[in-house]
From TrEMBL:
Entries under SUPFAM superfamilies matching the protein: NIF3 (NGG1p interacting factor 3)-like (SSF102705)
Keyword Metal-binding annotated: yes
Binding site for a divalent metal cation 1: H65, D103, H229, E232
Quaternary state and interactors: Homohexamer.
Protein name in UniProt: GTP cyclohydrolase 1 type 2 homolog
Molecular functions per Gene Ontology: metal ion binding
Keyword Metal-binding among UniProt keywords: yes
Pfam families: DUF34_NIF3
Chain segments annotated as transmembrane: none
GO cellular component: cytoplasm
Organism name: Paucilactobacillus wasatchensis
Keywords: Metal-binding
Length: 274
């Protein structure tokens, strides 16, 4: 099977046309017409992930985060990022990135996160648009309800459990309320907290919340759980399962594996008690 065959099938599911403007989705590196036998799904394309792919004789890396957010200004191979590109080219590995199209599509990233939280009766957090291929309405993020309302501290512990975390950041308003309606948006969603408030969310789960935005969230009376950006790693197993299913349906002779590496740059540590 050539790489383009998988790309075409994926883009029927999550069209690049529903990605956010300027988002560098699609083919990142390599020749999409090359024959592939082994596909690896990953959240990030980092030097250690490329080493893993080379060891596993991977032909095609399918990532959520684009490998190239910014263009290279030179090809100095003493730069680890440039050397990573060179290693991919030396081993003839195709790289594809599905970013905000996977965030926006129904049945994609934000539905996977909502499923992890076991949210019911979900709807989009942000107004999106209409998919030109399917005619379906799409929108980033999800808002739904828990089976029962729980205190803030219990909800934070629950998030640690479902996302398999050793720690997270919790932003609590001065007057806490029980958590029943929850908004979730994978990645860096701090700027969209007002939409969570407007949709009646008691809590908002998103990553990379900044200091001053945190103060604004408190002023709005919103509880926020910041579990980090890396919870989007759910995509590795979800994409793997999707591709295996498509391979069976279409009789593709490929092996699909998920990266086993943790690419979260943040480590939570326990401080000394005073």
């Amino acid at each position: 099977m050539i790489a383009q065959t998988l790309i075409d099938r994926f883009e029927q599911f999550a069209s690049p046309k529903i990605a956010e403007p300027g988002d560098p989705v699609g083919l990142q590196l390599g020749n999409a017409n090359r024959e592939v036998k082994t596909v690896m799904t990953t959240l990030d394309v980092r030097p250690e992930v490329v080493e893993e792919a080379i060891e596993q004789q991977v032909d095609f890396i399918f990532a959520h985060h684009p490998m190239m957010f910014h263009a290279a200004h030179n090809l100095d191979l003493s730069d680890p990022q440039n050397e990573m590109y060179a290693a991919l080219l030396r081993h003839n590995i195709v790289v594809y990135g599905a970013h905000t199209n996977l965030d926006n599509v129904n049945g994609g990233m934000n539905d996977w996160l909502a499923e992890q939280l076991d949210l019911h009766d979900t709807k989009p957090l942000l107004a999106g648009g209409t998919d030109p291929l399917t005619g379906q309405h799409y929108g980033m993020g999800r808002v739904g309800t828990l089976a029962q309302e729980i205190p803030v501290s219990n909800f934070a512990e629950y998030c640690c459990q479902v996302f398999n975390l050793t720690g997270l950041r919790l932003i609590k308003p001065l007057h806490e309320r029980l958590i029943k309606t929850v908004a979730v948006l994978g990645g860096s969603g701090g700027q969209f907290y007002r939409q969570a408030v407007n949709q009646g969310a008691d809590a908002y789960v998103t990553g990379d919340v900044s200091y001053h935005v945190g103060h604004d969230m408190i002023a709005q009376g919103l509880t926020v759980v910041d579990p980090g950006h890396h919870i989007e790693c759910v995509c590795k197993e979800k994409l793997q399962a999707m591709f295996i299913n498509w391979a069976h349906e279409n009789d593709w002779d490929i092996k699909v594996i998920a990266s086993q590496l943790n690419t979260d740059p943040v480590t939570f540590i326990q401080g000394a008690k005073r």
